[in-house]
Structures are given as structure tokens and as C-alpha cells.
Amino acid sequence: MNKILLFFFSFSLLASITFAQSPITGIVKKSSGEPVPRATIKVRGTNITVSADDNGAFKIDAKQEPPFYLQVSSVGYKPQDFQILRYQETPIELVLVESALLDEIVVTSRRRSEVLQDVPIPITVIGGRAAENAGAFNVNRLKELVPSVQLYASNARNTTLNIRGLGSTFGLTNDGIDPGVGFYVDGVYHARPAATSTDFLDIEQIEILRGPQGTLFGKNTTAGAFNITTTKPTLTPSAKVELSVGNYNFIQAKTSVSGALAKDLAAKISISGTQRDGTIWNTREERRYSGQNNLGFKGQLYYTPSEKLQVLLSGDVSIQHPAGYPLVIAGVTTTERSAYRQYARIISDLGYQQPKIDPFSREINTNTPWRHNQSIGGISVNVDYKIGKGTLTSTTAWRFWNWDPTNDRDFSEVAALTKSQGNSRHDQYSQEVRYAGNLTDKLSGVIGVYLLGQNLKGLSQTEEVGKDQWRFVQTSNTGSQALYSTPGLLDGFGIKTNSTIKSLSAAVFAQVDWEVLKNLHVLPGLRYTYDKKDVDYDRVTYGGLQTNDAALLALKAAVYANQQFTTKVDNNNLSGNFTVSYRPSHNLNVYGTFSTAYKPVGVNVGGLPTTSTGAADLSVAVVKPEYVQHYELGAKTKPFKGAIVNISLFNSDIKDYQTNVQSPQLGVNRGYLANAEKVRVKGLEVDGSYQLERFLTLNAALAYLDGKYVKFTNAPLPLEETGHTELVNGVATQVAFKDASGGRLPGISKWNISGGTELSTAGNLATREGRYFIAGDASYRSEYSSNPTPSSVLNVKGYALFNARLGFKSDKFSLFVWSRNLANKNYYEQLQAAAGNSGLYAGVLGDPRTYGATIRYAF
């Protein structure tokens, strides 16, 4: 009996070994049934790899018993894992899905998956890999790829993110205003513009929607939205690493690891770090500024117990401690003030040399260190549950932002405005519940509710002047003004501000897509919004000469004074849109849209101008809501295979446009918000792309934008007109404002062009099969105003930028060299008058030429 058992055991073991070593034969095919030549087949978890032949056929010896996985990949196709449960004698067929062609891109902008060309909204889509390859590792760099996007930032807090010239105030940021461009990551709205400065982590796709979108998204968006999705964790173990190095000691490392924790639970951890030396040299401190020092982390858990239920838990944090972002002196202009108050005279009287006007030497001589530290992050839970033909989604999130800056606001070695520290802490809580899907064969849509609570605190925000400030505020050297030269009067004199804005925004929104006739769709949408803001503002002076002299105290109070106020405001709005779309074929989608939108009431927490009695002018504490009427005509076409051409014409009329005003009063040198009576932006956008198999990709986009103040009767004076006088009742009277009606809006170039191309060919790098490629992209922006009121000096000249890259890529491995601003173009991103309006102005410089290499590996 024992011999029989031993015989059967030996036979089974031999059969098992023989069976385990049986080779697997098969063929790799496209979804159309055609073979995929030269695909790579690998036994997961081993080094066993083979390549298919030109007919897609392969043979591989797994050297193990089932079950196991075969990893199949080929350039131009989505990599896929196939589970082998048993051996079979007949060849197996493995089908790969082609990577999305330009006319097959799927978007989720209407809260459901749709082909881009079928959506009657002007949208630009940038894949995560495409953004990485172009060096766009944050939103700021995307503006070179999308002409309709304007992003200007002197630091993370002072960020203006606009689409078609609308969205946020241009210049210094005031925390009391809401952005008009929605910024979403995995369905979570990010309320503070500083979110645009963080590095991307595992981006799958970036959708940039243009025009009002309040009936689709949780927070009302008057100008458009960024809808960013990240890659989800996978049950299949995977990982990727990326390393980039470049000049200015640039180094950026990214990695992510994903895999199963349990049967239906996948996890992923992603880390990103960026380091770069500064590009601006401080001759006084002998150190570099405008560098990068970023660290980002993101963790996710993805629970999929059934086809109906998906739960995604995400947590992320980004910490940035860069060498701060100083402005360089760009010029000095003559104002309309008296000769005694011109910048050159002031500097001479103080015993300083005139500043060096050589901005592109990239040197500064400031005496206060620049610091722009921030941390930003949060936690969110997204639950998708399929009900009927749609999906019920709940998105719950908490996010925070800590801001710790120091700025030298006189931009020079002079001890005038020596310190500006707008320390902030922001917490936001949001909840969105919506249902989206097909209600019938002819009717689909989305309906949802949204709540957003924010608590924004200004924590001992400091403005401080130095020993030289007396000469900047002195209007003459006679009478009481002569007392400004009293030794120590303004030395270390400043204000500390503690403020709180508690806001609540609640909304109900809905939009449907109804095919009323064959190929004719009608898309009505409505949104009701309620907004409430409670403000507590308290500013206290400190420092300077301690005295009881009434005359000296009055002079100090003219520079800084205590200020305290509270205000509560709320409002509601009903807005909506109506779109008609005609889609006679897959190659044409023609649509027209009329929509209304609204940006909620704003509040001023940057200091208020004072009345004749010296009290805060509470009449400007609250800024009226902004109302938008928008018209658009568009066509999305596919004229021939591989080609897309889209065009849109639009007109946006804005009533009570919220804009930034720079007061001539020093105590509000951060500026405050006001309303321009009416603004209009109209334009034309054309974008096209062409893809020839896998060998050639072309894309180009053009935007013509015409933005004007239709009516702005109380605009701030431009820098060169500071001190302007007019006859009022026969008396020469100095004025602080002017009628800017008909003037152009800041930050808008009339002509915005971008384009790019990639040419590739099949080849091998060592044993790896892939494609060699050469690629480049270019962008051009014509001149634009860099001041709330049109100015003869604060205009940024037009500029063109060129980027290029060259290398090798395969599905799992890439290696390439790159250069940004290849021509080393000197250009400004922004010009800004120094506080006090004495004639000095400074600029935010664009990066010089950078270059380096990137290696990327996935396994």
C-alpha cells in the first residue's frame, strides 16, 4: 500500500513540476482584433519577460503553478495585467486597449464620464503624463499650455488665477474675496489660491473648463474651473519612481507605491520633493532667493466591495519652505506730486544712492529677509454608490492652510516699509451630495447640494516701518510736517492685526441634458446660493517714539492708526444657464449658451481708508456681489481622422466687478477691494490637434481676449498720476481717483497663442523596446496691463517662451533631457507700484533658462 501511495505521490509531483513548466502561448491583440506587434509580456513578480513577434504571437515559460499574472504592455496602449487561472493547450488571446486618442478623451466635468467632443462646454484637457513631460509640475506652469489661463503670483498667497481674464482680483490678494475660478482635486474644492502653488501628485488628468459652471460644481464659478483627478490605488501591486536633475541645483524626486491590503481594499502612498537654488541674488545678505523647497505627501485607501460601491479616503499635505520670492526694482517714474515728494529727491535727502535699475541682473539689495513658508493639506472621503442608471456621490472634506511670510515692501536697502507679515490660518469644511446619470434614454443630468464653511484668521499680521519712513510721508519741511524728522519718531512703528472671517456658503444646483429631437439637445440648469460672512477686524499700533506730544502723535496716526470694526453680511442668488447643442454626427457638435453667474459678497480685511475724522470708512468694508451674464457660441469638429478643431465665441458682461484698489494712504498699503460698475470681456478661442498614429502629434491654440472697464468712475490713480490735482469749485484739489471707463482690464493679453509637437519613432534602448522622441512647445502673450487702472509705466511687454525635450520612452521606462525657456528670454510676469506711490515700481521676474534630465521607471 505504501509503495502504491509513494508511486502516486511521485507521479503527481513529477506531473506538477512538468505542468508548471509548460510554456504559455498566445497572441496580443488590439480591441479591433488586429495583432499588437512587439508587445512585452512579463510574469508579475519575476524577471521572466518575452517579446511578442511582429504578428503579436508569444511563448513564455512561467515556471510556476497558476494562479499568477501576466503583465502586458506596449507603447501607445494601456498596460494591463491578465490573471492565468489554469494552463491550456490552445493559445490565449490578450487584448490591449489603445491609449486615448485625441478624439476619444473621456472627461468627468459634468460629473459623469463622457467623450470630450460630445460635451457642449469649451474644455482643455491635459493628461498627467503630458503635464509631467512638459515640466508643468504645478498649475503655474500650465498657463504656458492653455492660452485662456492667466496666473500671476508674487508669492503663493498673492496669486491671481483667471480664465479669460476673469476670476480673481489682480495684484495683492485680499482674503475677503472669493475666487471666481473653481479649483477642484478629486471633487474637493480648494478655497485658497495658494493651492495652485503645490506640486502635483499622481495626476491622471486636468480638465480646464471655461465660462461659468455653477450648475455642475459645488462652489459657484463665474469664470471657469480646474477639475483635477488623481490616479486611484490599485489592487495589483505597482510602483513608480521619477528623478529629475537640472541647473540651479534643481532636483525633484517622486515616487508612489500601490497595492492590496485586503481582498477589496487597495492603498497608495505618493511622495514628491522639489529643491532648487534661487535665481535672484541678494547682494546685502549674500544669499539666493526665488528658489524651491517643497515636500508633498498623499495617502489613499480605496475600498471596492462590489461593482455598486466605491469608497476613497484621501489625505495629503504639502510643506513649502522656499527661499522667498522677492520683487526686483524695475524702474522709477515721475509722479504728479511736488518735486519734494519724488522718489529721487527722497532717496537723495536720506543719503542713499539712487537704486540700480537693472532688473535682469537678478540682483536685489533688500535689508529684510524674504520668507514665504506655507503648509497646506487635508482629508477627504468620497463615496460613489450606483443607483439605477446613475451614481449617488458624497464628498466630505476638511482642508487647512498655514501661511508664514516676511516681505520687504520698499524693495530696497532703504529702511522704509521694512516688514510685511500677513500670517494666516485657514480651515474649510465642505460637504457635497449629488446624483448624476441617465434618467431615461433621452434624459440625463445632475442634481446636488453643497455646503462650505470657512474660518480664515489673520494672526498678528504685521506692517512695520523703519527709520527712513519719515521722509516718504513728509509732504514738506515746514510747519508741522518738519516734525516728521524728529529722531526715532517712526523707528519700528507698526501695526499688528488680528482678524477673523467666518463664512458659510450653501447651494442647490441641477442641470439636465434632454434630447428633445434626434441629435438636438437642450441643457437647462439652475443654482440657488446663499452666502454669509462675519468679520471681526482689530488693528493695534505699536513702537515708534513714545511721546505725549499731541503734534507728534497726530503725525504717527497719519501713518498708522488703531482700527477696529465688525460686520455681518449675507445674500442669496438664483442663477443658471441654458444651452442648446446639435450633434448631427460624431464629427460635429454645435452649441450655444446663455448663463448667469455670481460671485458672493466680499469684505475688506486689509485695512480701510479713513474718513476726515480719522475713523475707518465702513462704507467700503463690504464689497457688493459680482454678477455675470455670459453668452457663448461654439463648435467642436473632427474634420478628418486624427484631427480636432474647436472654436468658440463669447461675451461676458460683469456688473459690480470686484477689483483691487491701492490706496495712497500708507495704513492700507495692502490695498482694499471695491466695485467697478461694469466690465466686459469678449473674445475668440480656436484650438486644434492632430495625431498621426503614434508618430506625430500636433496641437495649437489661440485666444483673442478684449477686456475693458465699461464703467469705472472711481478707479484708483495710476502710479504716474499720483498727486494729480483738479479744479473743484475753482480750487486746485488733490484727488485720489479717476474715471477709468473704457480702459483695459489688468492681466489680459489681447493675443495668447500656444502650440506644441512631438515626433517619435520606434526603437530600442538596450533591451527595452519603446520610442525615441523629440518634442517642443511654444507660447506667446502680447502686452498686458499690470495695474488695476491702466498705467503708462505698469505694462508688461509681450513675450514668447520655448521649451524642448528629447529622449526615449516606453510603457514602463522613460529617459529624456529638457529645457524650459530655451531662448533665455528676460520677461516680467507682473509689475507693481511700491506702497506709498512715490514713483518706485518693482517686478516679478519669469524664470531664466533651465535645463536638466528626467528618468522615470514603473514596475
UniProtKB/TrEMBL annotation:
GO terms for biological process: iron ion transport. GO terms for cellular component: cell outer membrane. Its main location: membrane. It comes from the Bacteria. Residues 1-20 form the signal peptide. The keyword Magnesium does not apply. It is found in: Cell outer membrane. InterPro entries: Beta-barrel_TonB (IPR000531), Beta-barrel_TonB_sf (IPR036942), CarboxyPept-like_regulatory (IPR008969), Plug_dom (IPR012910), TonB-dep_rcpt-like (IPR039426), TonB_rcpt_CS (IPR010917). Keywords: Cell outer membrane, Ion transport, Iron, Iron transport, Membrane, Receptor, Signal, TonB box, Transmembrane, Transmembrane beta strand, Transport. PANTHER family: FERRICHROME IRON RECEPTOR-RELATED, TONB-DEPENDENT OUTER MEMBRANE RECEPTOR. This is Iron complex outermembrane receptor protein. It comes from Pedobacter zeae.
